[in-house]
Amino acid sequence: MEPRTSPEVGGMGHSLKRKEDPRFIRGKGTYVDDVQLPGMLYLDIVRSPYAHAKIVKIDSAKALAVPGVLAVITGQDLAKYNLHWMPTLMSDTQMVLPVEKVMYQAQEVAAVLATSRYAAADGAAVVEVEYDPLPVVVDPHKALEPGAPVLRTDKKDKKDNHIWHWEWGDRAATDRAIAEADVTVKQDIYIPRIHVASIETCGCIAHFDKVNDKLTVWMTTQAPHAIRTVFALVAGHVGLAEHKIRIISPDIGGGFGGKVPVYPGYVIAVAASVLTGKPVKWIEDRMENLQADSFARDYHITAELAARKDGTLTALRIKTLADHGYADAAANPSKFPAGLFHVCTGSYDLKAAHVEVDGAYTNKPPGGIAYRCSFRVTEAVHTIERMTDLMAHQLGMDPAELRMKNFVKPEQFPYKSALGWEYDSGNYAGALQKAMDTIGYAALRREQADKRRRGELMCFGISRFTEIVGAGPSKHFDILGLKMFDSCEMR
Q1: Among the three residues 269, 292, 315, which one is the final residue of a domain in this structure?
Q2: Domain harbouring 423, CATH code
């Protein structure tokens, strides 16, 4: 049988026909907020105006007087069932609803359950919370200074705001190569905190079937299996096993990594459904989305690149401080060990490299989500490419010439980088040359020189990336300390 190679089924070099568009064009998509269930209740959340404060008192009397409001749920209520804390994707813990204090502005403080979305919102608007403000730390450098207020007082014997330290590479060889180099460049690079801002905000519908003891959750998630495991770890306190939890991820109005984490609103809705036995819908509004979840980046990077006078790159050293907010809630293995540590040497034949990263708690919402391959491509590539441009400027070389000189050559594959990662194939010089020929690079450089002589500015840059792809079998990824996704239920 001959393999089919028509454009309809082809891979490389073929544009695949999009088959999902017609129903979206006709308005036939099904998003979480489109799902309606009989007897469904609605959830709205009361949020903190303070970045760090003790909760003195929550008065729900006015909210309970609003027509349609059935209950006001607080951290004290969830604590009775041990549902007020939840695990994160990085073996940390995160508040579902706080009992003693809030840790960031817009943090969830209480939830209002009502028969309509509008009644829930009206009720949330009149919940009265008395706060006692505490010192705020939003700079990760200051968070790690001696004497800084310890934010995670819930952690026994925690005496600072340091989360973790990871490093990779040969520190001694890298230090030696940089010390012996003819030329070095050093740069501080700040990648600021950003928000994903997908068209659809986060939300879910939790439906606990008390008769069959099963939980079904329709939700805006990119990681239904991981979410199910987290829900099982939380709901295990009320006897709900993982195999009795089903996560349905319908059409998603944009994810980009922002819908991988487990946000408290999801768990509050699940807890409300488990406790009431009714379906509960929670859909956050745009302001909540912008203030409380889907944050990425916030990395403080110091990089050093070393070279010989002839332009041969010899060593790279990177130190990163990651501001992950008040809880380490992102899937860090995909960003650092499998991301930054792999990608940061780029396509260059560096003989020595050392990378280290530290995480810090601050009074911000949990951050660090892998927005558009965060640190698997973006920050790591930006860092090495920025340093390469700085080195080219320092040496007086054309940026393209410096790159061509230092690319891993085709005959070197399979190639093991200075950080121990194996590259299977590539023709980096050939790819860059083709791109330069296509845009007329030499002519553009001549045009640039002519304009500069006339006092005009013309700028353009070069960048390339090498990315790790393919996560591999689940045995290599022990998120939450568990082997996951090795079995399934056929429906």
Answers
A1: 292
A2: 3.30.365.10
Total domains in the chain come to 2
CA distances from 162 to 69, 144, 149, 152, 355 (A): 42, 6, 12, 10, 18
**Over 70: is that where the pLDDT of 111 sits?**
yes
**Residue 194 clears pLDDT 50, i.e. is over it:** yes
Domain around 49? 38-135+197-292
Does pLDDT of 3 surpass 50?
no
| Cβ-based neighbour number of residue 291 at 10 Å | 16
Residue labelled with tokens 């293995």: 333
- 361-365-369 Cα angle (round to 5): 90
Tokens standing for residue 153: 């007082």
Tell me the pairing of strands 422-423 and 415-416. antiparallel
Looking at the structure, do residues 411 and 285 belong to the same domain, yes or no? Answer: no
- The pLDDT, as a whole number, for residue 482 is 47
Quick one: what percent of the chain has pLDDT higher than 90?
Answer: 77
Q: Within this chain, do residues 406 and 326 fall inside the same structural domain, yes or no?
A: yes
Give the mean pLDDT of 139-155.
97
55 contacts 100 by C-beta, under 8 angstroms: yes
Domain shared by 286 and 327, yes or no:
no
Contact 66, 136 (CB under 8 A): no
Bridge partners (DSSP) of residue 72 are: 112
pLDDT, residue 5, reads 46
How far is CA 434 from each of CA 98, 119, 429, 441, rounded to the nearest angstrom? 57, 61, 9, 10
How much of the chain exceeds pLDDT 70, in percent?
Answer: 90
Dist CA 139 CA 145 (whole Å)? 10
Q: How far apart are CA 459 and CA 354, in angstroms?
A: 32
Residues 446-458, mean pLDDT to the nearest whole number:
96
SS percent in the chain: helix, strand, coil, step 5: 30, 25, 45
**Contact assessment for residue 336 and residue 357, using Cβ atoms and an 8 Å cutoff:** yes
CATH (domain of 263): 3.90.1170.50
Distance, CA of 380 to CA of 346 (rounded, Å) = 8
Averaged pLDDT for residues 381-407: 97
Q: Summarize pLDDT for 149-186 with one digit per residue, the tens.
A: 999 999 999 999 999 999 999 999 999 999 999 999 99
Residue 319's SS3 state is: strand
Residue 342, pLDDT score: 76
Write down the H helix ranges in 7-98.
21-25, 61-64, 75-79
pLDDT range class, residue 91, cuts 50, 70, 90: confident
Cβ neighbours around 407 below 10 Å, total: 21
The secondary structure of residue 161, as a DSSP letter, is S
The Cβ of residue 68 has, within 10 Å, a number of other Cβ atoms equal to 17
DSSP 409: P
